[in-house]
Structures are given as structure tokens and as C-alpha cells.
Design brief:
Layout (H helix, E strand, L loop, with lengths): L5 E2 L9 H10 L18 H18 L5 E6 L2 H13 L5 E6 L2 H10 L4 E7 L20 E7 L1 E2 L4 E2 L11 E4 L16 E5 L10 E6 L16 H6 L9 H16 L2 H21 L4 E2 L11 E6 L5 H10 L2 E2 L10 E4 L6 H18 L1
Parallel strand pairs: 1-13, 3-4, 3-5, 5-8, 8-9
Antiparallel strand pairs: 2-10, 6-7, 9-10, 11-12, 12-14
Helix pairs in contact: 1-6, 2-6, 3-4, 7-9
The structure holds 4'-deoxy-4'-aminopyridoxal-5'-phosphate.
Length: about 350
């Protein structure tokens, strides 16, 4: 057995160990086929059954209504930042965006290429440490959609409520907290997520799109990103990321075996509470996010004295606590607590935080 660590990476991130073990056991021979999933035709019956099960399990986990299509695409969340306007924004149209930080700004910058963007709200006034309440939003009356980033992976800010945009479709980049808790999919027009945090390996992008929003794509929209084209082709207009879809499917099975999203949410709440309590205990560590908007998945924290950062990280590594260095844009530390991170990993981290503080505080 290889030595495993507590991996706090923001993504590509830790996968559930039983998923990796199962993939290992099935690597050379999937289900008596004599082939690895990597070697199968995407249109053959073996892979078609893998894809169908992955979709059915994802639908079960999120209780996705029947009038939504599930697409398994490529290009990451950043490709969706272009695909969303290319599918929904007519030439000359306007789209509303809520600016909550780094990843919202990436979405906004991409949308600017395709049409008018209205920044309906921003938390720039407090360095992106909160989610602007809907009472402060200035929505356009004629927007083609409203875009939000439901978990800011760098800023550590998460929406715990769903905006009401009336008849205007709500589009969410949920990359870094999808499947961390139940969500009412029917409140959204589109939910998209790169897989490499809470779903599976990098290279796969999941798009959940309401039927009526597929079929409006602009002429110049690449066919691989046209929701109607991909929906009609069961995500096989081009060769899909077959092995990544298989691993995502194993992760969905693992989640269902844990008791589904309500059960994993309870674990995620306990993990987040334990870590924020350790951060808030004294003034030695600090997290700047407004308490009610603190992300359960992405927890940035800072040492009072940044000169101690290197020693903190080195000691953490010696204890098997890895990939804790904060994003280069903000420094400090960041612990990502995706579904695959058990409470024991968080306890190991908080133990180290207390020990470090005792010697350096
Ligand atoms: N949106 C969010 C919220 C993210 O966290 C990330 C990746 N960290 C991205 C978009 C970009 O995803 P990708 O690299 O898969 O395009």
C-alpha cells in the first residue's frame, strides 16, 4: 500500500480512496470485458452503459428534474464561461453578472467578448469577503441570463441561498462546491462545474441545462459547445473524456453509498465548523470572510505573521498535510475540504495548527 497523505489541494483534488481502489482493481479488465475503460469505443455497449449509469446516478444525487439535460463536456469551467454567452446571449443582448471575486471576474471577462455585460452587484467594496445580498443587486430588465459564482475557490465565499431572478435564467459556476450539499436544481437555468474538485479528475466538465435553454446558440458557437448539439448526441458529438466520466461515475456511486448529498453535507458542516473554530480560537490565524458567507469547501486562512508561513507549511508537510499553500494571488494558506476529505484529515490539520501556535504564538 502506498503512503497516502491528507491532500488539501484546491483542484485537481483528492479523490475518495475507495474510488481509486476500485479503478485500480478494474484498470486492466472492466467488468469481464478484457479491456480497460480507457481502451473502449465510446459508442460501444460497455462505455454506453458506464455513461448511462453515471448520468442516472448524478440525476439521483441532485434530484435533477426530467426537463434538464446532463452534458459531459470538455474545456473546463473556463470553456463554459464562453459557452454560456454563445448559447444564451443574442448579438446585441445584455447579460447580468454578480462579481464576487476572482472566478466571477474570469466569467465576466470572457462574456465581454460576446456582448454587453452589466455588473449587477459586486463585493469589491470589502475585498470580496461577502456575497452581495439580492436587495443590493441592480438587475437589467432585459438580461438574457444572470450569472453567479456560487463558490469562490480563492476568496472562500459561498452562496447559501439561491437568488430569485424571476423569468430570467440563473446560471451558476458551481465548480468548487457542486455535490457538497443538496441544491434545488429547478431554481437554475444552467449549473456548470469543472470535475477536478468534487466530481473526478480534470478533463471533464459537467453542464446541467434546462431544456428550453438548449437550441438558442449563436451561429458562431462551436458545435462541441452547443448545448442542443451535445444534448442530441448524448454528449458524444465529439469523443467524450471517457476515463474521466468513468471515474466521475464511481464517485457518484460512492456518494450514493454514503447516503447521498444530505449525508455528505452533515460531514462537510462538521469539517468546516472544526476548521473555522481552530482559525477563530485566538488571533494567531485569520479568515476574512463574513461568517455567514464562509465557504465550507474552500477555506483560506492567514497567519498573523506571514514570515511564519514557510515554517507552517514545512511542518504540515512533515505530518502528511499537503497542498495547503494559498493561491498565489492572495498568499497565506488554503485548505480545500471537498467531499473526499474526511473529518479525520481536518482534525489532523487543526491539531497541527494548535501545535504550531503553541510553539510560535
Ligand atoms: N471557476 C471556479 C469557481 C474555479 O474554482 C475554477 C478552477 N479553480 C474555474 C472556474 C476554472 O476551471 P477550469 O480550469 O476547469 O476551466
Amino acid at each position: 500500500m502506498t503512503k497516502r497523505v491528507w491532500n488539501f489541494s484546491a483542484g485537481p483534488a483528492a479523490m475518495p480512496e475507495p474510488v481509486l481502489q476500485r479503478a485500480q482493481a478494474e484498470l486492466l479488465d472492466w467488468n469481464g470485458s478484457g479491456m480497460s475503460v480507457m481502451e473502449m469505443s465510446h459508442r460501444g455497449s460497455h462505455f454506453m452503459s458506464i455513461l448511462a449509469k453515471a448520468e442516472a446516478d448524478l440525476r439521483a444525487l441532485l434530484a435533477i428534474p426530467p426537463n434538464y439535460r446532463v452534458l459531459f463536456l470538455q474545456g473546463g469551467a473556463l470553456a463554459q464561461n464562453a459557452a454560456v454567452p454563445l448559447n444564451l446571449l443574442p448579438a446585441g443582448g445584455v447579460a447580468d453578472y454578480v462579481d464576487t471575486g476572482h472566478w466571477a471576474q474570469k466569467s465576466i471577462a470572457e462574456a465581454h467578448k460576446y456582448g454587453r455585460v452589466n455588473i449587477a452587484a459586486s463585493s469589491a467594496d470589502a475585498e470580496y469577503t461577502y456575497v452581495p445580498p439580492q436587495s443590493a443587486w441592480q438587475l437589467s430588465t432585459d438580461a438574457s441570463y444572470v450569472h453567479i459564482t456560487t463558490n469562490e475557490t480563492i476568496g472562500g465565499v459561498e452562496y447559501f441561498w439561491i437568488p430569485d431572478t424571476g423569468a430570467i435564467p440563473l446560471v451558476a459556476d458551481a465548480s468548487s462546491h457542486i455535490l457538497s450539499r443538496p441544491v434545488d436544481v429547478a431554481r437554475f437555468g444552467i449549473i456548470y462545474a469543472g470535475a477536478q474538485k468534487n466530481i473526478g479528475p480534470a478533463g471533464l466538465t459537467v453542464v446541467i441545462v434546462r431544456d428550453d435553454l438548449a437550441g438558442r446558440a449563436r451561429r458562431e458557437c462551436p458545435s462541441v459547445f452547443d448545448y442542443a448539439v451535445q444534448a442530441k448526441a448524448d454528449s458524444m458529438f465529439n469523443t467524450p473524456a471517457t476515463f474521466a466520466i468513468y471515474l466521475a461515475g464511481l464517485t457518484f456511486e460512492w456518494l450514493l453509498a454514503q447516503g447521498g448529498l444530505a449525508a455528505i453535507e452533515r460531514v462537510n458542516v462538521a469539517k468546516a465548523q472544526a476548521l473555522y473554530a481552530a482559525i477563530d480560537r485566538t488571533g494567531f490565524y485569520r479568515n476574512p470572510v463574513r461568517p455567514q458567507d464562509r465557504s465550507r469547501m474552500s477555506v483560506p486562512f492567514f497567519l498573523r505573521d506571514p514570515k511564519l508561513d514557510a515554517a507552517f507549511l514545512e511542518g504540515a508537510k512533515a505530518r502528511g498535510l499537503v497542498q495547503l499553500k494559498g493561491h498565489r494571488a492572495v498568499g497565506g494558506m488554503r485548505a480545500s475540504l471537498y467531499n473526499a476529505m474526511p473529518l479525520a484529515g481536518v482534525v489532523a490539520l487543526t491539531d497541527w495548527m494548535q501545535e504550531f501556535e503553541a510553539t510560535h504564538g
